Amino acid sequence: MDRALISDIDNTLIGDPAALDRLLRRLAGSEVHVCFGIATGRHLEITLEVLEEWGVPLPDVLVTAVGTEIYYGPHLQPDSGWSEQIARQWEPDKIREVLAEMSDLRLQAPKNQRSFKISYVISPDKSGCVRQVEKLLPKRGLFAKAVFSHGRFLDILPADAGKGAAIRYLAGRWHWPPEHILVAGDSGNDADMLQGGYRGVAVGNHSPELEWLRGKPRVFFAPGKYAAGICDGLDYYGFLNAEYRKPGGR
Ligand code: GLC
Ligand code: MG
Hints:
Helix content: 25-40%
Strand content: 15-25%
Structural class: alpha/beta
Bound molecules: alpha-D-glucopyranose, magnesium ion
CATH architecture of the largest domain: 3-Layer(aba) Sandwich
Number of strands: 12
Shape: globular
Number of domains: 2
Distance between the termini: 18 Å
CATH class of the largest domain: Alpha Beta
Order of helices and strands: EHEHEEEHHEEHEEHEHEEH
Strand order of the largest sheet: 5-4-3-2-1-10-11-12
């Protein structure tokens, strides 16, 4: 593989079927070998369902449950090294107990709860409680990360997990230089991967919670929405150009 394209699914890869089709054709017809990966908040089973529904071929790498699980296609082999790494200092029972004190948080459905992801919905207009959660966890000696998305979802993850951390781990494990990784996303749980020093693309329909990344190096705000924004990003960085590989290239 010459480089890797890692995209969020909901409202990034999917949303506009014609644009998705254009993107998939570009990748399939590219003269450079692109590792195709997804990084999503969804868990594996519903990730596979939605990819099939939208006619997306099985990715080479699947980063699911907000970067707490990694699988490799085509046999969906889990990366146990990643699970072992993030399991350290993870105390889910204690986290649930501490956060039960907060009345503006409601646990999401059991199917959205994973071994390394505790997910809540925040009451409307109560997003201010994210700061409270961020203060409360360390105060109670808990090493965990709070990730806020779409103005209403709050995921609690091991402190060293998340989409950005998972991609850093993949880059290290598979020796991908940062400039050979293009990441695309639209909402809060994509922020850490977008500012990871890769080639970042925020699609045109991004949530306001990504606005603070505007003007940051290597975060391109695409005019196109959904997969059309990813295509804009490929053009902007010249990511599929064969000569891109040359040292000193863009
Ligand atoms: C997906 C997950 C949900 C999570 C959200 C934001 O919708 O199903 O559990 O809270 O992404 O990361
Ligand atoms: Mg999304």
